[in-house]
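Lecture notes, part 5. Sequence design as translation. It can be helpful to think of inverse folding as translation between two languages: the language of shapes and the language of residues. The source text, in structure tokens, appears below.
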């Protein structure tokens, strides 16, 4: 009897342990695509549609999209948007098509450049597939330099895009329904895991209507590159095949990093995108600095932003991007850049300094820990926090807000152009929540150097 009772107790204990193990939290994969399942195969229907600004965003923009290989040199149709379904005879632009082979099969990625548009005009446009078309999308061209502008800035998305980036993008669009431009500070996907195309599919799914409602300008991150000949004397960084075909970016970058650097004008703002990975790992920092000097030196506008993936002043322990500070930082200071927007370190930190204002942010699921140096030199800082940023330009005032995934205000300041006195930073503390710190000892994978992954 006792023996039977003991066996029953042991079986019950084992069953309870098994139940706990079955419901225990486990690390989530980067994509929701189960092994052996093909979720993002290209078809004759256009997908991964994204608009990006032309060099002059008042008179043009470009569109990239994807289909299967049956579609070659398809059309983009564009017309001034109207209230009737009959918007008139559209203009037709023929796209250039590029083949890309991935784990999801072969696809054609298309690019159409639209020029000759009228400023501050709402256009309707659609792209062609195999005997079919996309929906009609709306894009408004940039207005006069004196017009207000609202834009969004996202740090790294990178991991678990559909699972956890989606909610941040939705919250951002709720808080900035009038935004016309979105900047992404690199590492849009993780890559290098045999699921690169699945990850890009999830990035577009997570961003939903944003890439066809706003114009999108991304910076390349180190995860947009891969290591070729790894662990050999020939090891080197190589730009991934998706980057040049996924976005239709301005082709005005420095020759040594032509596909990953560019600039454009949007109303009273010039945005210059540099490639930190190329600067640090491929020796192009000096060339990029000379090009940046020209791009900023010819800026006729009141405002300027430089965006790069790797920070000039890193808030994460153990990272120090010396080549950026040596070659590119003097150019940024010389031209009195207003904002330097960065990612890479998966925390939030704003350097305590007058303009230029250096900001590092993160949108995605991967969360690192702050260094002691960052806690001394940056304010505010944050760990374990998904964020988006809203920037509003109106005349002599730039208003910046960093908000959490639930929309709570985390950081806010104004830059005010006082004419001869230059740009002055005005802190806005009302309504901000308290600084956030990671309270977990380690991640689900047992890593103490990260807060979440």
């Amino acid at each position: 009897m006792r023996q039977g009772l003991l066996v029953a107790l042991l079986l019950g204990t084992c069953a309870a342990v098994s139940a706990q193990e079955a419901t225990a939290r486990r690390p989530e994969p980067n994509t929701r695509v189960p092994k052996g399942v093909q979720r993002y195969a290209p078809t004759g229907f256009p997908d991964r549609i994204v608009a990006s600004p032309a060099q002059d965003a008042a008179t043009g923009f470009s569109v990239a999209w994807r289909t299967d290989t049956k579609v070659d040199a398809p059309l983009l149709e564009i017309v001034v948007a109207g209230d009737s379904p009959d918007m008139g005879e559209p203009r037709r632009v023929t796209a250039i098509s590029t083949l890309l082979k991935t784990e999801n099969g072969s696809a054609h990625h298309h690019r159409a450049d639209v020029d000759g548009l009228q400023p501050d005009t709402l256009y309707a446009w659609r792209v062609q597939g195999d005997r079919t078309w996309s929906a009609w999308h709306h894009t408004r061209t940039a207005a006069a330099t004196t017009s207000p502008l609202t834009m969004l800035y996202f740090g790294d998305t990178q991991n678990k895009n559909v699972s956890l980036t989606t909610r941040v993008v939705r919250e951002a669009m709720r808080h900035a329904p009038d935004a016309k431009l979105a900047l992404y500070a690199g590492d849009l996907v993780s890559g290098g895991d045999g699921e690169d195309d699945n990850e890009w599919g999830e990035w577009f799914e997570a961003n939903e209507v944003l890439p066809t409602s706003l114009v999108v300008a991304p910076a390349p991150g180190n995860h947009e590159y891969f290591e070729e000949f790894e662990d050999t004397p020939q090891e080197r960084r190589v730009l991934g095949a998706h980057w040049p075909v996924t976005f239709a970016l301005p082709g005005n970058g420095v020759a040594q990093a032509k596909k990953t650097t560019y600039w454009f004008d949007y109303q009273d703002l010039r945005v210059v995108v540099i490639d930190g990975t190329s600067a640090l790992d491929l020796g192009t920092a000096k060339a990029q600095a000379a090009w940046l000097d020209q791009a900023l030196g010819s800026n006729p506008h009141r405002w300027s932003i430089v965006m790069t993936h790797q920070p000039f002043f890193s808030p994460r322990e153990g990272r120090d991007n010396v080549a950026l500070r040596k070659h590119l930082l003097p150019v940024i200071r010389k031209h009195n850049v207003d904002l330097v927007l960065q990612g890479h370190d998966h925390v939030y930190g704003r350097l305590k300094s007058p303009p230029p204002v250096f900001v590092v942010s993160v949108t995605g699921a991967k969360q690192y820990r702050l260094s002691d140096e960052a806690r001394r030199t940056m304010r505010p800082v944050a760990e374990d926090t998904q964020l988006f940023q809203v920037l509003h330009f109106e005349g002599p005032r730039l208003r910046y807000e960093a908000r959490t995934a639930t929309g709570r205000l985390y950081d806010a300041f104004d830059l005010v152009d006082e004419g001869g006195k230059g740009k002055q930073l005005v802190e806005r503390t009302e309504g901000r929540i308290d600084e956030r710190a990671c309270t977990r000892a380690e991640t689900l994978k047992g890593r103490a150097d990260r807060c979440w992954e």
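The translated text above is only one of many valid answers, since several sequences can fold into similar shapes. The longest helix spans residues 2-23.
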